[in-house]
Design a protein that fits this description.
Elements: H1 8-17, H2 24-34, E1 40-41, H3 43-52, H4 59-71, E2 76-78, E3 86-88, E4 95-99, E5 104-108, E6 133-136
Parallel strand pairs: 4-6
Antiparallel strand pairs: 1-3, 2-3, 4-5
Helix pairs in contact: 1-2, 3-4
Length: 140
Amino acid sequence: MEAISCPTRSIDVRLRDAGLRPTRQRIALGGLLFAKGDRHLTAEDLHEEAVRAGVQVSLATVYNTLHQFTEAGMLRVLAVETAKTYFDTNTSDHHHFFVEGDSEVLDIDTGDVEVGNLPEPPEGMEIAHVDVIIRLRKKT
């Protein structure tokens, strides 16, 4: 198995801090996921990375792990297109560009977008966050 550049100990601590048991597969996938800084990827992307790194894990386990990480607050889900779910390692409030055709997701600085005139939420509810996704395509 290829060495994972993110220290195992920090992933172990990060998992425990999020309330997750640091299993071998969670540590391996977390190491791959968080080793490259803030990024956006699909379960298929992470599965490919795991296979290349010699981590023996099924695509179903990758999906389950990504959803567990999301529920624990370690990731954010981006519903950019219906066919793919993207996971964002940056859980801060920010918005995104989506490059159609390339299926690439890029961060937008928070200060660059102002969202106003939001509707009042139904009684007993509050707005958790607002996700702005601006779709781009290459000029023809």
